[in-house]
Description:
Blueprint: H1 4-28, H2 34-65, H3 72-81, H4 97-102, H5 108-130, H6 140-158, H7 161-173, H8 177-195, H9 201-226, H10 233-250, H11 258-269, H12 274-314
Helix pairs in contact: 1-12, 2-3, 2-9, 2-12, 3-12, 5-6, 5-8, 5-9, 5-10, 6-8, 6-10, 7-8, 9-10, 9-12, 10-11, 11-12
Amino acid sequence: MRFGPAFGTFALLTVGYIAVLLYADLRSQVFRNIFDIALLVGVIAAISTCSFFLRFVRWRWLLVRRGFVTPWFAGCLAYFAGFALTALPGKLGELVRVRYFSLLGVPGIAVVACFFFERVIDLGIVLLLASMIAGAGPGFWVGAAFAAMLIVLVVLLMSLRGIWSRLAAVLSRHGLRRLGRIVEGFGSVFSDTKSYFNMIEAPVAFLLGLMAFGLQAFGFMYISSELGFAPGPLVSTAIFPLATLVGAASMVPGGIGTTEAAIAVTMRHFGASVETALVAAIAMRLGTLWYAIAIGLIAAAVLEIRQASMHAIRE
């Protein structure tokens, strides 16, 4: 897999993002102290690292429960590599992990099933955190409706095991064996996803996810307090999850622009100044989304180099 285009795309998006920020700065003089902003981003990036590692621990534990034990370092790199394409709608780009975990002996169906389980759990967590300002947060019901729709869709797909099998059989009888195998594969994926929803794995996964997303919510609370915005712990905790929901509902890749706007609008709704809202939104996104993409690309590059080296040694 060639990651040169991915790095190029990331660089282009980053330059465009920074250009928009500089233009905004020229228009409104938002970023008066670049050093202070960089410090905030650094703190959020450190918090995000802990959050991402917690999510990896959850992922690894779920795979171990299915009998797939992977090395900690290689597994962590494979998990983080998924962040390289996390900006795709629905985070579907994270399924690039199929490639890297297959090299560690984990079949693609197990990786995809774990991914869908994670998405359902994470949507529930973000929805729970955002609901703390359900009555007052602008855009909450749009984001909540989107999250509920996706959760219901996955639950519905998990409930159609018999239909997947029958459809695959019909396709095979009509000579569409390849398509039938694909449909059967989807059925296996959602069947495996359903198996995670039990009295042990679902609660533990939810708790670890709540800790991970709670860390990022705490990071936003830290940014807010540093900028002099203190609407109360519930509001501060809920703003970033709410903005994440709104960004996801927009279906814009990575929620770029829409999540920032949701953060700023919500902060303004609770009394923050324009400058404070914009600085908080940009610092938070640089320390979460853009940081995740950067470490994802680095992890993917390391894995590709290791794989190329192993091929060279064999030859």
